[in-house]
Design goal:
By secondary structure, the protein is an all-alpha fold. The protein has one domain: Sodium/glucose cotransporter. The chain has 19 helices and 2 strands. It has a two-stranded antiparallel ribbon. β1 and β2 form a beta hairpin. α5 runs antiparallel to α12, α8 packs across α12 and α16 runs antiparallel to α17. The protein is globular. The protein starts with a helix and ends with a helix. 57% of the residues are buried. The model has no long low-confidence stretch (mean pLDDT 80).
């Protein structure tokens, strides 16, 4: 059994490394190439790279696990994400691609914000970089937790060995090949993920333990008449919290940086259609794995100690070892595509927004590329330490980091691209208020219980507070010189 699985995984690992070597030879001569791939991504690579870096291990672990336990009502998260992603492609993508090139050919989100608001450039770039590194350390750790769970559940191995192995493979191709390697591997990984999520529900339903949609639905409603209801146990606050996941898209640096790298604004509509199609198919597949996986477990008496491992368990039970290895590769693809993107964006901020801006302004291109590689290693090690707890929940870690980015950067990105009266002071205020609100909301437990009742997802108060801070401070600190800079740009 193990031999066939490892053959498939070995082929997958070698392919990822080969792509890294190809990217190293093609696109690492300058910091622009290492960080943004020379702004030359095709629509298909941009779309699947954005999707794969977005849909981390939670797509094959956290979301199916939530549906396995609570039923179809958990699908509201997916609906909120689809709506948020579509608005992100429509509102942010074309404007960010055009304005980041116009404003000093910015290579990072903090770099763009600094060029957009010169009155607070230094402070804004540093604060942005710190927020990115802190939240990405947590976000990256969620991916490593998924890798550890795969290794422990599928092979009975040590959890931390799986965490270290996942990080090690990602570091190899990310350090070597930079953004182009990350984007090309994301494209391949996105194809693998979607194919796996199409295959798995079909096999579940047609296996001996499945026997079709009708019988699966009957078994589920026997144990809980409301299991297949989208309104089961959903309160107004719960529905708002689920739908609010879509707000996070506007502030995810590892996703919106793909918009900066597409080869032209004219390619954005094509990329949007490809990306949204991929996302909808993948989310439907993940929902089906959770729902039909529960039906299979009921029929066969399968004991599932950790619902987040249902994809892993079914991969092992229902498929030939070579195919099982492919499905494990799909899970690793979901994990590694996000981890690599996050490591690169975090290292880019450390390199461009702290090292180049604060420590050594005259650094050469080759020096910046090497510093970026060292920064990837540093952020990876921090994430490794955070992922040390094997009881960590993938969806929980993702939700905290997603909220942090969405609240800190979401209103900031939207308003900086669309509102000319926004000031640098307003940008700094929104960034800090959004991040601090999310951290305090989590720390005080208000996402679990609010006024003795149900808690609300921290991105909601964080997004609102950040938006208000930007607007109010911008009106209070109107800087006409900054507005004139905007008109000249």
């Amino acid at each position: 059994m193990q031999t066939g699985v490892w053959v498939s995984l070995s082929i997958y690992f070698l392919l990822m490394i080969a792509i890294g070597v190809y990217a190293w030879r093609k696109s690492t001569a300058s910091s622009e190439e290492y960080i943004l791939g020379g702004r030359d991504l095709s629509p298909s690579v941009t779309a699947l790279s954005a999707g794969a870096s977005d849909m981390s291990g939670w797509l094959l672990l956290g979301l199916p696990g939530a549906l396995f336990v609570a039923g179809l009502s958990q699908a509201w998260i997916g609906i909120g994400l689809v709506l948020g992603a579509w608005v992100n492609w429509m509102l942010v993508a074309p404007r960010l691609r055009e304005q980041t090139e116009r404003y000093d050919n910015s290579l990072t989100i903090p770099g763009f914000l600094g060029a957009r608001f010169p009155s607070t450039q230094r402070l804004l770039r540093m604060v942005s970089a710190v927020v990115i590194v802190v939240f990405f350390a947590v976000y990256t750790a969620s991916g490593l937790v998924g890798g550890g769970k795969l290794f422990a559940s599928a092979f009975g191995g040590d959890y931390m060995t799986g965490v270290a192995l996942t990080l090690g493979i990602v570091l190899v191709y990310t350090v070597i090949g930079g953004f182009l390697a990350v984007s090309l591997t994301d494209f391949v990984q996105g194809c693998i993920m979607m194919l796996a999520l199409v295959i798995m529900p079909i096999v579940i339903l047609t296996s001996d333990g499945g026997q079709g949609v009708g019988q699966a639905a009957a078994r589920l409603t026997e144990i809980d008449p409301q299991f297949l209801s989208v309104s089961k146990g959903v309160t107004a606050i719960g529905w708002l919290s689920a739908m609010a996941w879509g707000l996070g898209y506007f502030g995810q640096p590892h996703i919106i940086v793909r918009f900066m790298a597409i080869r032209s604004v004219q390619d954005v509509p094509t990329a949007r259609r490809i990306g949204m199609s991929w996302m909808i198919i993948s989310l439907i597949g993940a929902i089906a794995v959770g729902i039909f996986g529960r039906a299979y477990a009921l029929r066969t008496g399968l004991e599932v100690a950790d619902p987040e491992t249902i994809f892993i368990m079914l991969s092992d039970l229902l498929f030939h070892p070579l195919v099982t290895g492919f499905l494990y590769a799909a899970l690793l693809a979901a994990i590694m595509s996000t981890v690599s993107s996050q490591l690169l964006v975090a290292s880019s901020s450390l390199t461009e927004d702290i090292y180049r801006t604060v420590l050594k302004r005259g650094a050469s291109e080759r020096e910046l590329v090497n510093v970026g590689r060292l920064a990837v290693l540093a952020v990876g090690i921090v994430a490794l330490l955070i992922a040390g707890d094997p009881d960590s929940q993938v969806l929980g870690l993702v939700s905290n980091a997603w909220a942090g980015f969405g609240a800190a950067f979401g209103p900031l990105i939207i308003l900086s691209l669309t509102w000319k009266r926004m000031t640098g002071a307003g940008a700094v205020a929104g960034l800090i208020v959004g991040a601090v609100t999310v951290i305090l909301w989590i720390w005080l437990g208000l996402n679990q219980s609010l006024l003795g009742g149900e808690g609300i997802y921290e991105i909601v108060p964080g997004f609102i507070a950040s938006f208000l801070a930007i607007v109010l401070v911008s009106f209070a600190t109107a800087d006409q010189g900054e507005f004139r800079h905007l008109e000249r740009a």
